[in-house]
Amino acid sequence: MSGSRPPIRILDAAGSPEEIGNAHGSTFAEEIRRYAAERIDLVASGRWSGPAIDRDEVLAIAESMLPAHEAFDLDLHIEMSALADAAGIHLAEAIIVGGYTDFVDTVRAVVGGTTPPELVEDDCTAVIVPENRGVDGHGLFGQTWDMHDLATDHVLLLRLRPEGAPPAIVFTTTGCLGQIGMNAEGVCVGINNLTATDGVRGVAWTSVVRRMLRCSDADEALAVLLGADLAGAHNFCIFDRRGIGHNVEAMPSIRAVTKLERKPIVHTNHTIDEGTSAVQVERHPSLQASSEVRLSTARALLAEGTIDVDRLMALTREPTAICQRASDPFRIESSGAVIMRPATKDFWACWGRPEENDFQHIAAPFGGEG
Prior knowledge:
- Helices cover 34% and strands 23% of the residues.
- It is α+β, with helices and mostly antiparallel strands.
- The chain folds into two domains: 12-111, no CATH class; 126-361, 4-Layer Sandwich (Penicillin V Acylase, Chain A), CATH 3.60.60.
- Strands 1-4-5-6-7-8-9-10 form an eight-stranded mixed beta sheet, with helices on one face. Strands 11-2-3-12-13-14 form a six-stranded antiparallel beta sheet, with helices on one face.
- Helix 2 crosses helix 6.
- The mean pLDDT is 91.
């Protein structure tokens, strides 16, 4: 497409958890501090989490979640600590800037009160394409990453070579361990945000994504997710090079798993399972309508025929529902998009609205593979 923004930012980092965290935090220190401040202000205002609370209480809730992160994965906790030190923020602030949507689920559970009717959601549309519908028997994963338009400028790709774990490409934002990714074993993880009433002082979804990207196949990644002490709610899409896939509506108190079969799985930002729906926050009618129309639109676009990379790119650019443009009052937009083909280790990413920007094929840190 013409007139697109310069290529998506990429940070290459390798080595120990401290080295990776320091590289991330020091490279984007000023930006991370600014982004953390914006998110703390949003929580303190009550616009996302219920009643207004002061900044000290926001940080105290985040600090109370640190033991769960350390217990879940010590290496990732060390990486997050090094990131915070290098960026000049408190470790509790790193919880907020990196795992914001889970953090607000926790805040709502801690402080109580009525969820604001104007609650802002991030509204991703995610798709797993089974091997029988792909070109040459290769399945695909693709999604938009939609968020408040303040987040768009913070989008970043990490190309990681961590010690003791597979290299990986990770779509994320500055100050965040990871949101969407694929590793050298051909394991892909993607997400949609959900909103829960059963938040706890647990582990943010971003740490769970990175831990899943240490796995060798989709079933192992599923086991990690099912065993995690989740702080808040997300839908997780898991797919691997063998064509095994799972969709998981994961709330702190309940997980609903759907196994990929011969039809594409599409998921947006409302629960489908009866059990998970029982602990979903009541959504604003216009946000619920957006989620439902994106779901039906994506399903219709993928109903028949072979699905290739270009067709998934076109889906992310669909202008009436899927590729969102920021508008009042919610200011949600498609801040980026990702397509992954794990059988061939191919990864494409787009900064900002796909309708306006190009996808880039990202060279993998996989020792010449892909």
